[in-house]
Amino acid sequence: MKKFTKEEKSWALYDWGSSAYSIIITTAVFPLYYKASATEAGIDLADSTAYLGYTIAIFTFILAMIGPILGTIADYQGLKKKFFTAFFLLGTISTAALAFVPSENWLMLLICYTFAALGATGANVFYDAFIVDVTTAKRMNNVSAFGYGLGYIGSTIPFILSIAVILLASNGVIPISTTTASRIAFLITAVWWASFSIPMFKRVHQNYYIEREPNPIRQSFKRLSKTIREIRQYRALFLFLLAYFFYIDGVGTIIALSTAYGTDLGLSATSLLIVLFVTQAVAAPFAILYGRLSERFTGKKMLYVGICVYIVVCIYAFFLETITDFWILAMLVATSQGGIQALSRSYFAKLVPKENSNEFFGFYNIFGKFAAILGPLLVAVTSQVTGNSSMGVFSLVVLFVIGLAILSRVPEPEEHIAVDEAAVE
C-alpha cells in the first residue's frame, strides 16, 4: 500500500485529537467523577448507572433526529465543513465547561455532559463523511483503520497526563483535591482535542458536493424524502444499516458504561484507569491489523470476527468477579473495538454516492444513534429489575446475535455495485 497522503493523515489526526474525549469523558474520568458525585448525593449505585444510561439515550435520540436533516443540507457545496465546525465547537466548549460545574451537582454534570456528547458525536457524523473526500474506495479500509489506530495511540497521552494528575492528587503528592484533578483532566481533553483538529481544518476540504440551489432547506427536505423512498432499492446498503443498528449498539453501550459497570463490581478507580490505559494501547495495533487483514479476508469476514469477540465479552461479563477477570474482559474488547468501528465506517462509505455522503452518513448516524438508545436502556432496565449490573451487560448478547445474522445476508461492497445499479436503472 502507498504511503498515506497529507489529506489522509490530516483527516486521521482528528481521530488522534478527538479520541481523548472518548476515553476521558465517555469511558474513564467523567463516569467515575459522576458516580462519585451521585453517590455523595445519596443515589443508589444501580440507579446512578441507570441515570447515566438514560442520559446517553436522550442525547443520542436528539442527534438521531437531526442528523439526517443536517447531513442532507451539508451536502451542498461548502457546508460540510461549517456543520463540522459548529458541532466541534459545541463539543470542545462543553467539555471544558465540565470543569466549572460544582462537583456536588450530579444533575448539572449530566446536562453539561449531554451538550458535550452532542458536539462530539455530531462532529463525528461529518468527520466520517469526509472520508470520501480524502481517499479512494480501494484505500478506505486501511485509511479508516489508520484513523482509529491513531485515535487509540493519541488518546493515551492525555489519558496518562490525566491519570498522573489524579493519582498524584489522591496520594497527596500535589496539593490539590481529586475533584480538582478531575477538572484538570476535562480541560486537558478539550485542549488536546482542539489542538490536533487544526490539520483537519487546514487540509481537508469538501471535494464531492451538490451545487447550491434556491431554497436549499426546502430542497434538502425533498431530497431527504426521496432518499427515504428509494433507500430500499439499495438492498446491500439497507441490510448493512439494519445489521449495524444491532451490533454497533452493543459496542457503544459497552464503551459508554464500562467504568460505571466496573465501579458497581467494587473495582477501585485506580485499577479501572490503569486497565483502560492498557486497553487503549492494545487497541491501537489491533485496529490497524483489522484494516490489513480486511485486504486478505475481506471487511465482512473481519466484521464477523469482531462481533463474535463481543458475544464472548458479554457472556464472560456475566461471570465477572475479580480484577483479573476485568483485565481479561478489557483485553478481549481491545482486540476488536477499533477494528469493528473502522471497518463499519469504511464498509458503509463504499456503498454511498460520494456527492451525497453527508445525507447517507446521516442515515448511518440515525441507525447507529437509535441503536445507542436501545442498548443503554436495555442495560439500565435489566440492571434495575434484577438489581445486578452483570445481567444488564449479558442482555446485550441478543443484539450482537441479531446483527451477525443480518450481516450474513449483506454482500461485499464490490459485489453490490452491479446489483444496486441495475435496481436503480
Give an account of the 3D structure.
By secondary structure, the protein is an all-alpha fold. The chain has a single domain, classed as Up-down Bundle (Growth Hormone, Chain: A), CATH 1.20.1250.20. Helix content is 82%, strand content 0%. The chain has 18 helices and no strands. Helix 3 packs antiparallel against helix 4 and helix 4 packs antiparallel against helix 8. The two termini are 35 Å apart. The C terminus is likely disordered. This is UMF1 family MFS transporter. GO terms for molecular function: transmembrane transporter activity. It holds the Pfam family ATG22. It is a multi-pass membrane protein. It is found in: Cell membrane.
- Summarize the main sheet: none
CATH domain topology: Growth Hormone, Chain: A
Helicity, as a percent range: over 70%
Under CATH, the homologous superfamily reads MFS general substrate transporter like domains
Whole-number tally of structural domains:
1
Rough outline: globular
Distance between the termini: 35 Å
How does the SSE layout of this entry go?
Elements: H1 6-27, H2 29-40, H3 45-74, H4 80-97, H5 106-129, H6 131-134, H7 140-170, H8 178-195, H9 198-203, H10 216-230, H11 235-264, H12 269-297, H13 299-318, H14 323-351, H15 357-386, H16 389-394, H17 397-407, H18 413-424
Compact summary:
This protein is an all-alpha fold and 425 residues long. The chain has helices at 6-27, 29-40, 45-74, 80-97, 106-129, 131-134, 140-170, 178-195, 198-203, 216-230, 235-264, 269-297, 299-318, 323-351, 357-386, 389-394, 397-407, 413-424.
